[in-house]
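Morning F.,

Quick status update on the modeling queue. The single chain you submitted on Monday has been processed. Sequence for confirmation:
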Amino acid sequence: QEKKIFMVQGPYPIIRHLLRARGWVERKLPSVGRQLEQHHPLHYPWPPAEEEEEKEEEQCDEDPNGIHDLMSYLVRDRLPNFIWTNFLEATDHELLQQDHVVNHYARVDAFTTKEGLCLSLQNLPWIEQADPNTFFPRCYRLGTTDEREAFIEDFRLTAARSLLKLALEEAGDRPVRTKQVPNSAKGAGWHRSHISHLKHSTAQAGSPLYPELVEEALEVCKQHLGVLRHQDIDRGTPSPCRTCINWDRFLQEYYRVAHEGAGLVLTRQQRKQCQNLLRCLAEQLPQLGMEGKLNVWILKPGAESQGRGIICTTRLEEVLQLARGFTAPSVQVGRWVVQKYYVERLLTIFGTKFHIRQWFVVTDWKPLTVWFYQDCYLRFCSWPFSLCHLERARHLCNVSVQKWYKTSPDQDPRVPPDKIWSNKQFQEYLAQLGQADAWHQVLVPGMKAAILNALRCAQDQVGSRKGSFELFGADFLIGEDCQPWLLEINSCPTMRPSSAVTRQLCANVQRDTLRLVLDRKSNPTCSTGAFELIYKE
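Structure tokens below.
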């Protein structure tokens, strides 16, 4: 009569404990109900554990008198009024009654899968006056012809820009050659056999590469800058990647410079041109500063989670092989996304990569209503960060990935053994760097804005339902300038504690979520814990 029957599916002992403490009665899942019916109802047996988490539930919420099991048996034929589950199929939503409270919405894959988020954010400029390139690393769906071609162009242009950066870095403050590139070498007439001979002699003698490579990169970047400035509108300028440059040869030479240590020679004029071009491109490309110079990209199965199937690579041909389904047969052909390696110039802690897990709750989609959790935590990798080595232990911060790796002997001993930090520890670290204000002035506003932009883009695709709510976990990487970059948004973020920090935080966020979606209904002024209302249409 009080409509206090609940059902929990999955490893959520805290939710079960908190609801029982509120006087709610649990309706066991159908399989458990059948097990109970095989016993006399006064035996009150605890159902056999299907997973280790069931043991945690038993320890967390002991039932010495069996009263909860008895009540569960008595309400076995009643529909639950509150459902907390790992996942609810879209068809299940149609079976729910109006007063049912459920912790899921339908069709959230529009922003909680890598493929969905990539597609949704493409629409952001049409919805808001915002550019996704300012908070979300460039991303393409390889199963779509147009996007695959756009990625190939992006990879080539990034290689050209990276070559200019490498050339300037190598030149440094050392004297540069004043000799100009021979006229015979400046055009398309620079013969492949001459290039091949030069490469062979360069490799043997250890001398720098021929400046023609820099000339080609400069020409490509000039054309790209013209496109970005819309100077090509009336002139019909072709794409900079459709010029007479032999891109296969250019990329092979770029790989030698970026990854094999081949040298470059800059003329004085070229050095000045590189500096001017990169400065102008930075005004047009929000990600130029973070994209680094090694052209690292990360491949992800479009609908997987927990780091499954993710590969880091620096080679265009490897990406295209995956797109054609030559490797990773478990992933459906064409369901890959490729993303610019989050931030090549990222903020590390004690030389180690980390990312932030940030929770938020949506309590309504029409009007969109979003609550931001003011506590979060950091997850570290097991090995020191390096772009010269692309092992998963260095680059994927997921707990489900890192649990398989032992801490590297060359890891800084100040990295926590459980690879977790609270946001308070992170704020203290920022203060030591002289960035005490960065958390409240840059990081938190940036994370809030990125989350809201992602939700607005997907709003029309999600199945809105009164009475539902959902807790999400967003992952952010932090650049050297403390700017947060959204990596992905997870439905059903893990509540399985892997450290003392997450044991407390996960319990707190579950407690505060119930305050938000249950207690606040009967008492609008009640505490919502660490949840802050950041948006209501």
